[in-house]
Design a protein that fits this description.
Strands 4, 5, 6, 7, 8, 9, 10, 11 and 12 form a 9-stranded mixed sheet that branches. Residues about 1-5 and about 10-15 have low confidence and may be disordered. The longest helix is centred in the first third of the chain and has 29 residues, at about 1-30. The chain contains 13 helices and 12 strands. By secondary structure, it is of the alpha+beta class. The N and C termini lie far apart (about 75 Å). The chain has one domain (about 110-450): Glutamine synthetase/guanido kinase, catalytic domain (Creatine Kinase, Chain A, domain 2, 2-Layer Sandwich). InterPro entries: Gln_synth/guanido_kin_cat_dom, Gln_synth_cat_dom. Belongs to the glutamine synthetase family. Keywords: ATP-binding, Ligase, Nucleotide-binding.
Length: about 475
């Protein structure tokens, strides 16, 4: 009887606690939201305060609260945490109640609204490649992140054999994603020890970004339960291919038809006024969109490749299918932008694949950059650079025939923050965003420049 009474008391206390939480949630959901400390925009990936006074969160205003607005449309449950309800929020300025310039969801929503004003929907899909290790957070720290054990040995892209190892974990990623409302289109092994590739189902751009960021959360959570650490680091090993975060994009009109697709009567011969053979099965709007992406690509690189390590993935260039130049081509995996159109796919599947980002991208910023540049291209009716180039020769680099992308985060940030950067245009991202986001990248560069690496010690300690 004592045990039963004690259990009942604990249950009552738990119910009361849940009721208070429910009341708090309902109050926040029915009002403007709830207060949340602005320091989340003022510290880096390791909770170190940014070295620069940033616009949104800084010491000067004492890290005041922002308004966190609950997006009820993002409701789902976390299946591996007893189906606890889960929502995403967007952040508003407490004075104006307007979205703050640095909020990732707010930035992408603003771009999507621009497209909606023209009667278009931004549609996207993301693919992740990621290494996995038979480790735990504790073992990573104990080993000082060295001599890690891969999930499986050897190079086994598209392997039926390797999926039979760690079967429960492999299936959990697919099954839990479905329960978590992050549907997948493909899930398989990729080239490299312990590497998987997962393709997320095509959907509206904001939903795609939500799903992409939540897939990382899901993979790491499921991995912890199975003694596996998935890594979305872009280039964990110098002698192996890196991890991409390829992005597929298109626009659809009010009838759900791809704006990049040709009308039925042109499908046999292609568009007669296309600039080049590679784009003859791409609509005029699709060609302008592509031209906009290519024109602005060098100016938004930190939004696609936001880390120091990410640029090491691009150093290999075509050798690792990690393009590092302003290039495009029909069905070319060596180009920065791959044109996917008839005759290789049905007209409804006509789209562009941007192959520059790595798995370490922030999907909100990466999708915002691509669609903002593409819409700019349509508005300005930009012409393509040409002719299309997939393979870059040493002569092309020397003569400047092909424009190279910035080769480091430092160079990319300098280019993005320069006064005449396309990223600064009001119709793209504007000064406030560039100053804030650029400031966070300058902080990352400073930390890298101050670091003493193992490579330096091994190379110089004895012989310098």
């Amino acid at each position: 009887m004592v045990c039963d009474a004690s259990h009942q008391q604990r249950r009552i206390r738990a119910d009361a606690s849940f009721l208070k939480s429910t009341e708090k949630f309902l109050s926040a959901a029915s009002s403007d939201g709830f207060n949340f400390c602005s320091v989340i925009f003022g510290w880096d990936i390791h909770d170190t305060v940014y070295s620069k006074e940033l616009l949104i969160s800084n010491r000067a205003n004492g890290y005041r609260d922002l308004i966190a607005s609950i997006d009820l449309a993002t409701y789902r449950r976390i299946p591996w945490e007893n189906n606890v309800p889960f929502f995403l929020v967007s952040f508003l300025d407490p004075d104006t109640k307007e979205p703050i310039c640095a909020d990732p969801r707010g930035v992408l929503r603003k771009v999507a609204v621009r497209a909606q004003a023209k009667g278009w929907r931004c549609i996207a899909g993301c693919e992740y490649e990621y290494f996995q290790f038979k480790e735990t957070p504790e073992s990573l720290a104990k080993k000082n992140f060295r001599d890690l054990q891969p999930l499986t040995p050897g190079m086994h892209g598209y392997s039926l054999l390797r999926t039979q190892l760690n079967t429960q974990y492999f299936n959990d990623l697919f099954d839990e994603s479905l329960k978590f409302q992050v549907p997948l289109e493909g899930h398989h092994t990729e080239t490299g020890p312990g590497v998987y590739e997962t393709a997320l189902a095509y959907t509206d751009a904001l939903r795609m970004a939500d799903n992409a960021i939540l897939f990382k959360f899901l993979a790491k959570s499921v991995g912890m339960k199975r003694g596996v650490v998935p890594s979305f680091m872009a280039k964990p090993w110098g002698n192996l291919p890196g991890c991409s975060g390829h992005i597929h994009v298109s626009l659809r009109d009010s009838n759900g038809k791809s704006l990049f697709a040709l009308p039925e009567e042109q499908l046999k011969t292609g568009r007669p006024d296309a600039q080049y053979k590679d784009t003859k099965f791409l609509s005029q709007e699709g060609e302008w969109f592509l031209a906009g992406v290519l024109a602005g690509l060098p100016d938004v690189m930190p939004m696609l490749v936001p880390t120091i390590n990410g640029y090491k993935r691009l150093v290999g260039g075509e050798a690792f299918w990690a393009p590092n130049a302003v290039t495009y081509g029909y069905d070319s995996r060596a180009a920065s932008v791959r044109i996917i159109s008839p005759p290789s796919v049905p007209p409804s599947a006509t789209r562009l694949e941007v192959r520059v980002p790595g798995a370490d991208m922030n999907p909100y910023f990466a999708l915002s950059a691509i669609f903002a540049l593409g819409l700019r291209g349509i508005e300005k009716k930009l012409k393509l650079p040409g002719p299309p180039v997939s393979h870059i020769s040493p002569e092309d680099r020397k003569t400047g025939k092909v424009q190279m992308l910035p080769q480091s985060l430092e160079a990319a940030t300098e280019r993005m923050m320069r006064p005449d950067s396309i990223a600064r245009e009001d119709g793209v991202f504007g000064d406030d965003f560039v100053e804030h986001f650029g400031g966070t990248r300058q902080h990352e560069v400073r930390l890298w420049n101050e670091a003493v690496t193992n490579w330096e010690v091994e190379r110089y300690l004895e012989l310098a």
